[in-house]
Amino acid sequence: MSKKILFPTDFSAASKNAFTYALKLADAIQAEVVTIHVYQVPQANFVNAAEYLHEMYDVTELSNFENYKDEVPALRKIADENNLNHIKINHVLISGNLVQEVKKMTDLGDYDFVIMGTKGVTSLKETFFGTNATQVMNEIKTVVIVVPENCVYQPVKKILFLTQYKEEDTEPFKTVLSLAHTFGASIDCLHIVNPDKKNVENSKEQWKALVEDKEVNFNSITGDDKEGIAIEYIESNQVSMVGMHVYHRNFFEKLFEISLSKKLAFHINIPILAIHK
């Protein structure tokens, strides 16, 4: 079965920047890229809207189609500039909610990866409720790669996998192993241990048995500031991609707690790999 990468795009600079990563991965795993642009039909809030509703929809559909038709060649140009014009690229234009539509396509379409750009936080509301990118990271079961706006493409040479060395992290870790093999990259595993937590050396030793002769370093650092420790590690060790297992959270945790994955998405300039298992 052929591999597929879903690439949600709003044709922003952040999105176009992320497209290079989608093309490079598609080339490495011999996959096709399916771009999806989701737009919303405006809601009519005035009296007797029904008689104008069909016309409004027609104008919106036409406007989005024309914009879409103008923007698609820009994606092909990015492929040409990177000598990747042999990659098969298909395009989807649809109205609706981005996260919901991406979820529908990944649930039905057997995609291997979702890759998208993110602009980062621009308001307090986004800090608490998340951007489209972080919602996709949390809700979509397909492996998601989010590329920050200021991330300039570089070959993936080292992947940092944030872990607690728990059993439920082993399948996501195998996904990282596979991706590292695809890119010819090494892996650093990092467990950031709370000062009051027990030592994880035994679990770490069990993990070493999973990697055989692969190039993997296992690390543990004790401290309270998980975000700060992770960012410092990334900057000090020339990490080119950071991956993590996205744990399921209950409703109240999702609503009131900013997860580590969301924090990192707005403070680093390398791609983030979010894995559900």
UniProtKB/TrEMBL annotation:
Q: What residue ranges are annotated as transmembrane?
A: none
A Pfam family of this chain:
Usp
Coiled coil spans: none
The highest taxon in the source lineage is Bacteria
- Domain called UspA: residue spans: 1-148
- InterPro entries, alphabetized: Rossmann-like_a/b/a_fold, Universal_stress_UspA, UspA
The family line of this record is: Belongs to the universal stress protein A family.
Q: What is this protein called?
A: Nucleotide-binding universal stress UspA family protein
Supply the source organism for this entry: Flavobacterium weaverense
